[in-house]
Write a structure and sequence with these properties.
Structural class of chain A: alpha/beta
Strand content of chain A: 15-25%
Oligomer: heterotrimer
Radius of gyration of chain C: 12 Å
Number of strands of chain C: 0
Number of helices of chain C: 4
Strand order of the largest sheet of chain A: 5-4-6-8-1-9-15-14-10-11
Number of domains of chain C: 1
CATH superfamily of chain C: ACP-like
Order of helices and strands of chain A: EHEEHHEHHEHEHEEHEHEHEHHEEEE
Radius of gyration of chain A: 19 Å
CATH architecture of the largest domain in chain A: 3-Layer(aba) Sandwich
Shape of chain A: globular
Largest sheet of chain A: 10 strands, mixed
CATH superfamily of the largest domain in chain A: Thiolase/Chalcone synthase
CATH topology of the largest domain in chain A: Peroxisomal Thiolase, Chain A, domain 1
Structural class of chain C: mainly alpha
Number of helices of chain A: 12
Mean pLDDT of chain C: 92
Chains: A alpha/beta, B alpha/beta, C mainly alpha
Helix content of chain C: 40-55%
Mean pLDDT of chain A: 97
CATH class of chain C: Mainly Alpha
Number of strands of chain A: 15
């Protein structure tokens, strides 16, 4: 243990862009990705706003040069983002070193499962999607697409902290010497399943989400895939690479409070942040920016805000929730926000928390609402999920 | 110096009467089916009604096997540092019902409980909630290496001193739509096969089932530990002719050769198309190694290898290989070192190495 | 009204899987949440769906449920006043 974990590549596709450059451009120019839903027919279409990736499935299939209707949208976007991450890391032979793939997903192939649920009996042409319901099937397909063989490939599903936990596992496996290199992140497409699921919980906003605002009405669902390439110190030195940033700390804890809601005082979140700071060997005041989970549900933002105050006291670092751009991309969120955290470090810029007007009554916390340039060394990113799952990652510019 | 990792206790709910841990396959239940279900313990003995009312079958099975494991290890709930679960499909019964409700009711009048239970990490989350365990809480969902991924995470944490006691396990439930769709694509056998003649079925597909297996794993040996877990390796893909080489190199890292293996437990499920992977490993180096199999007893499911892991631990503790799991007649008296090899349909292979402690 | 209350008790038990509770154990004014029956926020969401499906009453904000679901009595009163089916 004790080895460094370098980030040498990243890839992303989200509602605000089809690659890293487009995402950065949108974040820098307040280009929001939230709109009415177009690619899924739902009776809720006029009641919700979503962060949809612009390409249709056939656009994505063409881009990947694969046959029509073989893969779930979760796999399509995952393959695109993971491919960009490998290219960005300059990796041409994916099997050259001990390499793994760890992906987070909640829906996996649910988009196809719900589409063909009653059709399998009579229509053999859609039966390729039967095994797609396995969340792990999506990761296996991405591994195959990347050409990864005889390798450690697994899937994490811890609701909305899945990708953050994938990054955490990858970092731990590199530190303990089990892998030299690992592609980590997550992918989730929109589906009727999640739209209706969140609808039953009555936490979907009917307009643009407003994280950390007193009048917040809930979240916008989004879809995305985002991956990082992590490599060991030895490999970075051997290949003479210049890392984009480092995974410095990580922590996962359970709120053990309620199946879906966070505890009022954010116990799990506090524990996750404490663990991450401990692993990073950093003091709270050394954190320059917090990319918050900030879903804009009444419950999350209150719980997370209180947890931030418990960790940082009166000096909560500048923070923002970029979910106001992308929507809440569920399992992918931790990956998306890891990419944004690295972009923040690379460009020394804090991306704004859009749509914020009124501070919450319960505490005096105001997010960064306009793009702000600032020298950044350390960024902390939170991701919380159902089942009380709380995760924190810390990224740093230097080892 | 890395810590040693011990399996302190086992808990199982399966198609055999394994929830009663005082016996070890004394009386095997035989089936003549294409799908089998677990033998249910009396869940009310383990779960208060108020807690049980929203629980899917997978959570109930896991509550029982987790509680049995904790009791046997004499571990207080407060001593558990982490909960790590593997599941191929989670509480798929509720997911399926939620999807059919969406379609049947045209997205109206849907209720949250089924959606909440559909979250793959609901088992790990609810166990943590029940125990008040605020530690690391992960759920792996990767087909036939779901359980091994959880075990590998636990092993790594215990070796590296990130935790000292972990509750880890695997669970999957058998439900209707999953069965009917997998029949369509031939993954389930067309005709019933009798339990003890599964290897002679000559047909494609497997007997599908369900189960839940939990273990207390620790870097402190404690009393009455079952085994020492030496290592786990998984592979997304492997060809038949590559398995032996990978197994030998896995053993070499533990400074072992095939001669050190007293028993090779194989994941044979009676599918003529894919049992050839096990045959491939049974030639050459492992030709004379005593062998055992288990899916005739447990049935096939994503975390069926949890039953294989349970079996290996029971064999090491009890010091004999039950006749009913022996392959061939070359079984050694009291195996000291066991290698488990499992895969499903030629993908997601795993090697797990245990020794007596 | 008493028929509605009886019906509500049956539905609550069925919808929320309260296997160990009998209809006559629920008094009209017993609190449903916290102490009383021990229901929680997920149950509240289940009850909101029941209002919609069985009585044609739509609640937009889950917070509105708190007062309505205080007891079987308050539920019945609210349903009588607002039902469309």
């Amino acid at each position: 243990m004790g080895k460094g974990v370098a980030i040498t590549g990243m890839g992303i596709i989200s509602a605000i862009g089809n690659n890293v450059a487009e995402n950065y451009q949108s974040l820098s120019t307040n280009k929001i990705g939230i709109d009415r839903i177009t690619q899924i027919t739902t009776i809720h279409e006029n009641e919700i706003m979503v962060g949809e990736i612009s390409g249709t499935n056939s656009d994505l299939e063409n881009q990947l040069k694969i046959e029509a209707d073989q893969w779930s949208r979760t796999v399509l976007i995952g393959a695109i983002a993971a491919r960009e991450a490998l290219e960005n890391a300059g990796i041409t032979d994916v099997n050259e070193f001990k390499t793994g793939l760890i992906s987070g997903t909640t829906v996996g192939g649910m988009d196809k499962s719900e589409q063909y649920f009653y059709d399998y009996t009579d229509n053999p042409k859609v039966r390729q999607h039967i095994t797609g319901l396995h969340a792990g099937d999506s990761t296996n397909k991405i591994a195959k697409y990347l050409g990864l063989e005889k390798s450690f490939v697994t899937t994490i599903s811890t609701a909305c902290s899945s990708a953050a936990n994938a990054i955490m596992l990858g970092a731990r496996m590199i530190k303990s010497g089990q892998l030299d290199r690992v592609v980590v992140g997550g992918t989730d497409s929109l589906s009727k399943f999640t739209i209706n699921g969140f609808k039953t919980l009555m936490i979907l906003s009917d307009t643009f989400s407003t994280p950390f605002d007193d009048d917040r009405k809930g979240l916008n669902l989004g879809e995305a895939a985002a991956y990082l390439v992590l490599e060991s110190d030895e490999l970075v030195a051997k290949k003479n690479k210049k890392p984009l940033a480092f995974v410095k700390g990580y922590g996962n804890a359970n709120d053990a409070f309620h199946q879906t809601a966070s505890s009022e005082n954010g116990d799990g979140a506090v524990l996750a942040m404490q663990k991450a700071l401990e692993v990073a060997d950093l003091k709270p005041e050394e954190v320059d920016y917090v990319n918050a989970h900030g879903t804009a549900t009444p419950n999350n933002d209150l719980s997370e805000g209180r947890a931030l105050i418990r960790i940082f006291g009166e000096n909560v670092p500048e923070f923002s929730s970029t979910k106001s751009f992308t929507g809440h991309t569920l399992a992918a969120a931790g990956g998306v926000e890891a990419v944004y955290s690295v972009l923040a470090l690379q460009h020394n810029v804090i991306f704004p928390n859009l749509n914020f007007k009124t501070p919450m009554k319960e505490f005096d916390l105001t997010p960064v609402t306009e793009k702000k340039e600032k020298s950044l060394h350390t960024v902390l990113s939170n991701s919380f999920g159902f089942g009380g799952n709380c995760s924190t990652l810390i990224f740093s510019k230097n080892q | 110096m890395k810590n040693k990792v011990y399996i302190r206790s086992v808990g199982s709910v399966s198609a055999q009467k394994t929830y009663d841990n005082t016996s070890f396959l004394n009386k095997v239940v035989t089936y003549n089916e294409t799908v089998t279900r677990v033998i249910d313990p009396n869940y009310k003995d383990f779960i208060p009604p108020a807690a049980a009312r929203r629980m899917a079958k997978g959570i109930k099975m896991s509550t029982v096997s987790a509680k049995n494991a904790l009791t046997e290890a004499n571990t207080e709930e407060s001593e558990v540092d982490a909960i790590i679960v593997g599941t191929g499909l989670g509480c798929i019964g509720d997911s399926e019902k939620f999807v059919s409700d969406i379609i049947d009711n045209n997205e109206q009048f849907l209720t949250p409980t089924r959606f909440i239970q559909s979250s793959h990490n609901t088992v790990a989350g609810q166990i943590a909630l029940g125990m008040g365990c605020k530690g690391h809480n992960f759920t792996y969902v990767h087909s036939s290496i779901s359980f091994e991924s959880a075990l590998l995470d636990a092993h790594m944490q215990l070796m590296n001193d990130e935790a000292s006691t972990i509750l880890t396990g695997g669970v999957d439930e058998l439900v209707e739509h999953h069965v009917s769709t997998h029949r369509l694509i031939g993954h389930i056998k067309k005709d019933p096969v009798e339990t003890m003649s599964i290897l002679d079925s000559g047909s494609k597909g497997a007997i599908f089932s369900e189960g839940s297996h939990f273990f207390v794993v620790s870097n402190k040996k404690g009393e009455n530990a079952y085994s020492e877990l030496l290592g786990i390796r998984t592979f997304n893909s492997l060809e038949r002719d590559e398995i032996e080489k990978e197994a030998l190199s896995f053993l070499k890292e533990q400074e072992m050769t095939s001669d050190d293996i007293d028993l090779l437990i194989l994941g044979y499920n009676g599918d003529v198309e894919f049992d050839t992977y096990y045959e491939a490993l049974s030639q050459e180096s492992f030709k004379n190694t005593p062998k055992a199999y288990f899916k005739h007893l447990s049935g096939e499911f994503d975390t069926a290898s949890g039953f294989g892991f349970w079996l290996a631990n029971k064999i090491l503790k009890h010091g004999f290989v039950p006749q009913v799991v022996q392959l061939g007649d070359s079984s050694k008296e009291a195996p000291q070192t066991i290698l488990i090899y499992n895969q499903y349909r030629g993908e997601n292979h795993s090697l797990t190495l245990l020794k007596k402690c | 009204m008493s028929e509605l209350k009886q019906q509500l008790k049956e539905k609550i038990i069925e919808q929320l899987n309260l296997e160990d509770v009998a209809v006559d154990e629920i008094q009209d004014n017993d609190p449903l949440f916290g102490e009383g029956l021990g229901l929680d926020s997920i149950d509240a969401l289940e009850l909101i769906v029941m209002l919609d499906k069985d009585y044609g009453i739509k609640l937009a904000d889950p917070k509105e449920g708190r007062k309505i679901f205080e007891s079987v009595q308050t539920m019945a009163t609210y349903i009588e006043a607002n039902r469309s089916r």
